Amino acid sequence: MTPRLNRYAAATALALLLCTNVRAQQAASAAATGKSTTHQLKPTPATVAWGFYDAAARPVLRIKSGDKVEVQTLITSSPTRLEGAGLPASQVEQSLRDIHQSVTNKGPGGHILTGPIYVEGAEPGDVLEVRIRKVELAIPYAYNAFGPTSGFLPEDFGYAKMRIIPLDKKRMVAHFAPGIEVPLRPFFGSMGVAPPPAAGRVNSAPPGIHAGNLDNKELVAGTTLFIPVHVAGALFEVGDGHAGQGNGEVDITALETSLTGTLKFIVRKDMHLTWPRAETPTAYITMGIDEDLTKATKIALREMLDFLMKEKGLSHDDAYMLASVAADMEITQLVDGTKGVHSMIPKKIFTGKASGKKK
User: Fold this and answer.
1) Cα–Cα–Cα angle for 188, 193, 199, nearest 5°?
2) Burial code of 37-57, b = ≥16 C-beta within 10 A, e = fewer?
3) C-alpha angle with apex 304: 299 to 306, nearest 5 degrees?
């Protein structure tokens, strides 16, 4: 190569480096100032993962940290089952029909999840912060169902039953039965990222360190979910819309419905978590997941102690005491294979800088 070409190559490389640095600075500046792009993602045969989370899954959307996604999810059922329960055929979403007719790459779970979404910059060891800006009803009905081998009391219900439940969007109540109205608090039952590659394709039903089917009714609009990242891009998926649910979800379904929502994604390089956590406008939430309910409870409690020590400056002893007097241990769900427990502590008790000394 001639000296002139050497100088040209060097100048070109320098220009590319400067350009890259400028782009990085612009991206960081945009994230810092709240500027972002809003994407739209609807469920189609090409944009869903049916029944699984998988590090090898092909992303259907790529976004940057700080971007928002207006996403739509589908009810976890089939047109045949819905119509068999009495729903008029005209009320079955066409997208649900299309996906049931066209998608063959599915299982082992049953949830139709929208995604995966690749978040640029997310790497293993990071945390994906998911800000839940909006969650709204997409259809005027939900269903609840149980079967002979599912739910928490299969020995008491050795048969299957399904009920279509009208939803009143204006009054935000479900007309469960004459004289019974259930207040609606819509949330996505499943929000998760790909598990570690060694796990392969995992069933969408049991939640885990990848979050997934948490069925945590606190994750309504205005809350934030923090999920440990295990693969590049995180590969976020969302679905299993619930118009409302009781803690435990004891018969295995909630008010199952289709939802639309707006989610904002932020890559957190400054956070490192083992289990998902969440934050509401009024509380901090830690979570524990295990096949054994006692073990799940201990995980959630130890996660709360870890939070209180690291974020609030308490000693191990004081964190344990504060959890006992101020934190609520709640059963999230009992029916998804791995059981879920979450610990909630109110923000209002923290009136100033903690004085506890770490031990």
Assistant:
1) 125
2) eebebebeeebbbbbbbbbeb
3) 95
Nearest Cα neighbor of 74 from 116, 115, 111 is 111
pTM for the full predicted model: 0.89
pLDDT of 34 reads 56
What does 226-290 look like in DSSP terms, one character per residue?
Answer: EEE--STT--EEEEEEES---TB-TTS--SB--EEEEEEEEEETT---SS-EEE-SSEEEEEEEE
**CA distances, 117 to each of 13, 55, 225, 235 (Å):** 32, 12, 16, 5
Convert the pLDDT of each residue in 183-217 to its tens digit. Answer: 999 999 999 999 999 999 999 999 999 999 999 99
Question: 111: which 2 tokens?
Answer: 């949830």
Closest CA to 276 of 311, 228, 239: 228
Residues 6+ apart with CB under 8 A from 246: 217, 254
Element (H, E) at 142: strand 141-146
